[in-house]
Design a protein that fits this description.
Blueprint (H helix, E strand, L loop, with lengths): L29 E5 L9 E4 L2 H8 L7 H11 L5 E5 L9 E6 L4 E8 L9 E6 L8 E11 L2 E13 L9 H8 L3 E5 L23 E2 L18 H9 L21 E3 L9 H15 L2 E4 L9 H9 L9 E5 L2 E5 L5 E5 L2 H14 L17 E2 L5 H7 L5 E6 L3 E4 L18 H17 L10 H20 L8 H4 E4 L7 H5 L6 E4 L22
Parallel strand pairs: 1-3, 1-11, 11-12, 12-13, 13-17
Antiparallel strand pairs: 2-3, 4-5, 5-9, 6-7, 6-10, 7-8, 14-15, 14-16, 17-18, 19-20
Helix pairs in contact: 2-7
Length: 531
């Protein structure tokens, strides 16, 4: 609105251009849900490297399928992962109670920052420096002890703290706000000081440390690492919508999003279909894509894979894909011996690598879709490949020179008989990318006056976004009119829609579909060519 003109002269007004740039969202941020030996439970933690995963979740664990999947994800080109540790079998943290006050009584409880037997490696020392009054230092370290050797894995030092509540050096507030290893709880009466030994050196000697324990990973695994609580694992993986546990912990990551979901542990559960079905519904709601793993036993031949798929037709969904066979990778926890793993983590990395180098509209398959650090558990022939591909089962192949590669690009609705418009993975993922980008980029439209000026701004901004994709060769067609259209006017939004507070935006695009079958026709020329 123009201001009030009160004096003769020149007035300057800034007029909005109507340009609100729509930015494309991420396409390959991958979520992994499973048991891990440490880390926060039922929280989605964003990591950007396998080193991050080792620091926060303990790295590889023979009981955790997803720990190997995450390693493969980053080795194959993954950039960002969301990791959710689910508690199975009621794990408990390692603890230690320190005494204080007069007479001596329990004053300060020290517990591992997350439940699990890993906390048994934690040791703490509380030292008072000479002349410091009630102030004390807390030393925390994570160690591996074997015979007479002590290997220190991590160390924290928290200095000049007190037990006085409200003090800026109050130990509970200081440590809980800074430590990645322990959490403190004041269990004393009033401001009871700790019974702290003095150390003239200002440091802590080995004999000053006390060990936490016993922590527990819960009752879900036996001594050999085998899962003994399969219903508990299934319930933990899925979680509860209301409590935002299990995979539903991803509801808390806004404004971030996830694009791919992997549940490697679900593959070997008796009721895997129920877990994957729930995951498919969740992915559909979140405009994400699920990579389904197949069981380790009973699905090792093409015939068995066909039978497995026939018994799991309920899994056929446009937002999911499955790969055969499983893979074997070197296991550093077993002196490099091969470990059988599902393909989801490796393929999620291939998806991410392909998106970064070619775009989400390029199929994550072909000779450039190499499977790094992985071998095929089963080598397939062309006829076997030909029996699986028409059923929407993506095959992993080995070829001379090219090595192990992904050789399929169909969704679980990609069976020939279904004739689905979402037959191909890149077509479906491109649609999900456009949908999420427009969903995020058009929130400013809500509550704007619903008339031609608004519609013109929508056409301008959505059209600019779609044209940027066209210039990246994301669509079929040589001209914008052949590749996409954006329609928002009085034809899409009638007066009845306006009266109901609705604005309709119609966006269409011509997707690029992968060349699955390359046909070379050779003809013999009869007679002599004229020159």
């Amino acid at each position: 609105m123009p201001g009030t003109y009160t004096y003769p002269g020149i007035y300057i007004e800034e007029i909005p251009s109507g340009v609100r740039t729509i930015i494309g969202v991420s396409t390959a941020e991958t979520a992994f849900v499973d048991f891990f030996n440490r880390g926060p439970t039922d929280q989605a933690v964003r990591i950007t490297s396998f080193g991050d995963f080792e620091r926060q979740f303990g790295g590889l664990d023979t009981r955790s399928e997803a720990s190997y999947a995450i390693q493969q994800y980053f080795l194959n080109g993954g950039q960002v992962a969301w990791v959710i540790r689910v508690p199975v079998g009621d794990p408990v943290p390692a603890e230690l109670t320190l005494d204080g006050g007069s007479p001596l009584q329990a004053t300060l409880a020290v517990a591992a920052s997350s439940p699990g037997a890993w906390g048994d490696r934690l040791e703490v020392a509380v030292i008072q420096q000479a002349g410091s009054g009630e102030q004390f230092d807390l030393f925390v370290r994570e160690v591996l002890r074997s015979d007479d050797r002590v290997q220190v894995l991590d160390v924290e030092t928290h200095r000049n703290m007190t037990m006085r509540k409200g003090d800026r050096s109050y130990a509970v507030d200081v440590v809980n706000g800074a430590s990645s290893l322990v959490r403190l709880t004041d269990v004393g009466i009033g401001d009871s000081p700790l019974a702290v030994p003095a150390n003239p050196s200002g440091g802590a000697d080995d004999e000053d440390f006390q060990r936490l324990g016993p922590g527990s990973d819960g009752s879900a695994f036996d001594d050999a690492g085998n899962l003994t609580d399969e219903p508990g694992m299934q319930e933990a993986l899925v979680g509860k919508v209301a409590d935002k546990t299990g995979m539903y912990a991803l509801d808390r990551i806004e404004p971030f999003i996830f694009n791919l979901l992997c549940l490697p542990a679900a593959a070997n559960l008796p009721n895997a279909t129920a877990v994957f079905t729930e995951a498919e519904k969740y992915c559909a709601d979140k405009r994400a894509f699920l990579i389904v793993d197949i069981p380790q036993t009973g699905v090792t031949t093409s015939a068995q894979m066909i039978a497995w798929m026939g018994g799991n037709d309920g899994l056929r969904h446009q937002n999911a894909a499955v790969y055969f066979p499983r893979l074997t990778i070197p296991d550093t926890l077993s002196d490099g011996r091969l470990r059988n793993v599902g393909a989801s983590g490796t393929m999620a990395g291939v998806y991410a690598r392909t998106d970064a180098t070619r775009g989400v509209w390029k199929a994550p398959a072909g000779t450039d879709a190499a499977l790094r650090n992985a071998r095929l558990a089963v080598t397939l022939s062309d006829p076997e490949n030909g029996s699986l591909n028409p059923l929407g089962i993506n095959v992993l192949r080995n070829f001379p020179i090219f090595g192990n590669v992904s050789w399929g690009a169909r969704t679980l609705q990609g069976a020939d008989q279904q004739a689905s418009e979402w037959k191909y993975i890149p077509v479906r993922r491109t649609a999900l990318f456009i949908e999420e980008s427009l969903f995020q980029g058009l929130k400013w439209v809500v509550f704007e006056p619903n008339d031609e000026p608004l519609w013109a701004q929508i056409r301008l901004n959505v059209g600019a976004f779609m044209h940027s994709l066209f210039r990246q060769s994301a669509f079929q067609g040589t001209t914008p009119s052949e590749a996409y259209f954006v329609k928002c006017d009085k034809e899409t939004t009638t007066q009845a829609d306006i009266d109901r507070g609705v604005v309709n935006i119609l966006v269409g695009f011509a997707p690029l579909k992968p060349a699955e079958f390359v046909v070379i026709k050779i003809q013999q020329i009869a007679g002599q060519l004229e020159t």
